[in-house]
């Protein structure tokens, strides 16, 4: 074995040391560090030279925890609310102007009563009701023809089912049908939360996370509910107070002397509902980004360990990994640390506020469970006080900031909403007459052939 000993002595004395265990070649440190441990020049086999990044980390100042963490941005969310609300009101105003003009032409061609004056809002509203009833009757006739060859019992069951569904739809006001449609969308998205293949999409696209940086989720989260009680309560409240709010908006538009005529308030209501929901979610986002989140970071900073020594290597981790590196005492799960904004509670508060301010003498009462009637203003004031206490006590069961934002939007719209809506309608007139109280004869001749036949 003399040849093996001669080979080892030759390799050790060479300036390059071959580390067979690590399959890497590193320069020998014998000559540079003659006395490392007790005067011995032997270096352990696992010793390696620090990398360039480690050397830079030793010389540069390691940023503190507070310097590496930044509050979420609110600029994109504010822009999304502003642009989205303006776009919703412009589209709603254009559609309302077009439908009002078409129904004015339609009624003007139906009888001589409207030759000298334009039809009023109530007359156009009744005409739309009769036209919708005629449409439902035509659909019933088509169903009767389709089931003509069926057995008598089954045919009677189909016709009876259609009448039971169509009659309540016809009897209710037009805006309440939209409220029912919103409730139907809420119900479908509720079931999507409980399907394994769609719940991840719902969490990423239909729930607003303030730390995600997304803005469009403020809109999609309005129709998203994970709890059956939540979706049921919101849908019922939208249907109840949505019709009252639309009635107030329609009445203000009809009573105003300088206001344009309006055939239907449903587009106005839809723009108001979307804007109220966006504003309430924006208030919740800003409150979390500028109030709740800095407090949480300060608490995490107090819980974080002492900063490492300069000789230790510190890697800058990702934003969320650094924030939630340790489990704080006040949070037991990630969902509790970062609340997700879902539901239309903010928009519901806006509807409640408008109803309470527009009809101060109205009373509120629940049939299930039975409750005593309360004044609408007292009920809304109690809810607002409850949310203020919830913010002060840091309750996280409800989104109190979104509730207060919706109430503030409702109060603002009760005071200035009709005038704001009138400005959007005047901007969106386009080629239509400057005042929809007069139908030009030329426009009547151009559009008469395109209009359906007037109701009988």
TrEMBL record:
<feature type="transmembrane region" description="Helical">
    <location>
        <begin position="178"/>
        <end position="195"/>
    </location>
</feature>
<dbReference type="Pfam" id="PF01694">
    <property type="entry name" value="Rhomboid"/>
</dbReference>
<dbReference type="InterPro" id="IPR050925">
    <property type="entry name" value="Rhomboid_protease_S54"/>
</dbReference>
<feature type="domain" description="Peptidase S54 rhomboid">
    <location>
        <begin position="216"/>
        <end position="415"/>
    </location>
</feature>
<feature type="transmembrane region" description="Helical">
    <location>
        <begin position="78"/>
        <end position="96"/>
    </location>
</feature>
<dbReference type="InterPro" id="IPR035952">
    <property type="entry name" value="Rhomboid-like_sf"/>
</dbReference>
<dbReference type="GO" id="GO:0016020">
    <property type="term" value="C:membrane"/>
</dbReference>
<keyword id="KW-0378">Hydrolase</keyword>
<dbReference type="GO" id="GO:0006465">
    <property type="term" value="P:signal peptide processing"/>
</dbReference>
<feature type="transmembrane region" description="Helical">
    <location>
        <begin position="371"/>
        <end position="391"/>
    </location>
</feature>
<feature type="transmembrane region" description="Helical">
    <location>
        <begin position="338"/>
        <end position="359"/>
    </location>
</feature>
<protein>
    <recommendedName>
        <fullName>Peptidase S54 rhomboid domain-containing protein</fullName>
    </recommendedName>
</protein>
<feature type="transmembrane region" description="Helical">
    <location>
        <begin position="270"/>
        <end position="293"/>
    </location>
</feature>
<keyword id="KW-0812">Transmembrane</keyword>
<dbReference type="GO" id="GO:0004252">
    <property type="term" value="F:serine-type endopeptidase activity"/>
</dbReference>
<comment type="similarity">
    <text>Belongs to the peptidase S54 family.</text>
</comment>
<keyword id="KW-0472">Membrane</keyword>
<dbReference type="InterPro" id="IPR022764">
    <property type="entry name" value="Peptidase_S54_rhomboid_dom"/>
</dbReference>
<feature type="transmembrane region" description="Helical">
    <location>
        <begin position="228"/>
        <end position="250"/>
    </location>
</feature>
<keyword id="KW-1133">Transmembrane helix</keyword>
């Amino acid at each position: 074995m003399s040849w093996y000993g001669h080979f080892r002595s030759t390799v050790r004395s060479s300036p390059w040391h071959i580390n067979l265990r690590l399959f890497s070649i590193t320069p020998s440190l014998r000559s540079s560090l003659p006395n490392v441990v007790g005067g011995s020049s032997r270096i352990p086999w696992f010793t390696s030279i620090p990398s360039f990044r480690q050397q830079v980390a030793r010389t540069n100042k390691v940023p503190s925890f507070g310097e590496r963490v930044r509050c979420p941005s609110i600029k994109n969310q504010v822009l999304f609310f502003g642009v989205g609300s303006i776009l919703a009101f412009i589209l709603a105003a254009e559609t309302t102007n077009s439908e009002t003009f078409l129904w004015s032409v339609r009624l003007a061609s139906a009888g001589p009563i409207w030759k000298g004056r334009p039809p009023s809002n109530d007359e156009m509203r009744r005409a739309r009701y009769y036209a919708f009833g005629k449409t439902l009757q035509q659909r019933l006739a088509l169903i009767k023809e389709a089931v003509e060859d069926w057995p008598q019992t089954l045919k009677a069951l189909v016709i009876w089912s259609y009448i039971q569904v169509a009659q309540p739809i016809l009897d209710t006001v037009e805006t309440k049908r939209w409220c029912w449609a919103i409730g139907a969308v809420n119900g479908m998205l509720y079931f999507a939360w409980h399907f394994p293949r769609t719940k991840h999409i719902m969490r990423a696209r239909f729930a607003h996370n303030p730390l995600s940086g997304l803005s469009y989720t403020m809109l999609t989260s309005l129709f998203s509910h994970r709890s059956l009680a939540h979706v049921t309560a919101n849908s019922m409240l939208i249907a109840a107070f949505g019709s009252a709010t639309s009635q107030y908006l329609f009445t203000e538009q009809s009573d105003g002397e300088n206001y344009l005529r309006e055939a239907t308030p449903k587009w106005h209501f839809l723009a108001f509902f979307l804007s109220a929901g966006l504003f309430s979610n924006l208030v919740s986002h800003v409150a979390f980004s500028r109030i709740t989140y800095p407090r949480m970071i300060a608490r995490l900073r107090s819980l974080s360990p002492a900063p490492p020594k300069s000789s230790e290597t510190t890697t800058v981790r990702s934003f969320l990994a650094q924030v939630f590196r340790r489990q704080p005492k006040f949070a037991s799960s990630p969902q509790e640390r970062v609340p997700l904004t879902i539901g239309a509670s903010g928009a519901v508060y806006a509807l409640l506020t408008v109803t309470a301010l527009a009809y101060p003498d109205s009373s509120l009462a629940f049939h299930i469970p039975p409750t005593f009637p309360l004044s609408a203003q007292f009920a809304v004031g109690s809810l607002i006080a409850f949310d203020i206490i919830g913010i002060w006590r840091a309750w996280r069961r409800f989104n109190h900031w979104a509730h207060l934002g919706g109430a503030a939007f409702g109060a603002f719209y009760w005071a200035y909403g009709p005038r704001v809506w009138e400005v959007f309608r005047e901007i969106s007139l386009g080629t239509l007459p400057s005042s929809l109280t007069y139908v030009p004869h030329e426009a009547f001749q151009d559009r008469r052939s395109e209009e359906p036949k007037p109701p009988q």
